[in-house]
Amino acid sequence: MSKQIVASTVLEGHLKALESDDGMLRQSAREALVALGGKAVGPLARALENAKSKQVRWEAAKALGAIGQVRAIPALVAALEDSDSDVIWLAAEALSDFGQEAWPALLKALVLEGTESVLLRKGAHHVFANQTESKGQGALAALQAALEDGALPEAAPMAAGELLMLLGARQVSAAPVATA
Q1: Domain parsing of the chain, residue ranges
Q2: What angle (nearest 5°) sits at the alpha carbon of residue 111, between those of residues 123 and 59?
Q3: What is the Cβ-side half-sphere exposure of residue 37, based on CA atoms within 13 angstroms?
Q4: In 37-102, which residue ranges form alpha helices assigned H by DSSP?
Q5: pLDDT in tens for each of the 180 residues of the chain?
Q6: How many beta carbons lie within 10 A of that of residue 62, not counting itself?
Q7: Taking burial as the number of CB atoms within 10 A of a residue's CB, which of 16, 31, 95, 174 is the most buried?
Q8: Angle, to 10 degrees, between the axis of helix 85-98 and the axis of helix 118-128?
Q9: Which CATH number fits domain 3-166: 1.25.10, 1.25.40, 1.20.120, 3.90.1530?
Q10: What pTM, to 2 d.p., does this model score?
Q11: What string of DSSP letters covers 107-162?
């Protein structure tokens, strides 16, 4: 059996263990996936996006945050609209840890879906709450204000677009989910 087949089988075994009712087994599997690093990002991103079990999505979000590879950002941004608030919180925490590396994908999502998605705005609020801008003439502060409860839903996409332009992003398109 080749090393690649063995590695793939081990990865699949750890992913399957995330479905266990045994919390210690899930934690052990998550830690093993984190130790695999980049090799686990694609499968974890797919689990975060597609798993029916909220515990699997929770474990996937936690693992992706711990791995800390930028390829996970699109999946974590998408998870801000998860049906489980704990998954949303973990995704927002992970995106916060990425700092400005996560901004373009999150700002693009806000421009495209921010008016319609209360969950996305709330998750983005969590991400941007403690962020600071290195340049931008107050655009981050305007976005933070636009994401506050009581702000008009249309304010967030407008403020996100302003900050995105200041960051030099020219094209607003949906970011693909990491699959490799």
Answers
A1: 3-166
A2: 30
A3: 1
A4: 38-50, 54-67, 73-78, 85-98
A5: 455 664 568 889 999 999 999 999 999 999 999 999 999 999 999 999 999 999 999 999 999 999 999 999 999 999 999 999 999 999 999 999 999 999 999 999 999 999 999 999 999 999 999 888 766 568 899 999 999 989 999 999 999 999 999 888 444 444 444 444
A6: 23
A7: 95
A8: 40
A9: 1.25.10
A10: 0.86
A11: HHHHHHHTTT-HHHHHHHHHHHTT---SSSTTHHHHHHHHTSTTS-TTHHHHHHHH
Residue whose structure tokens are 């398109």:
173
Q: Tell me if residue 9 falls in helix, strand or coil.
A: helix
Place of tokens 């979000």: 61
Give me the amino acid identity at 45.
A
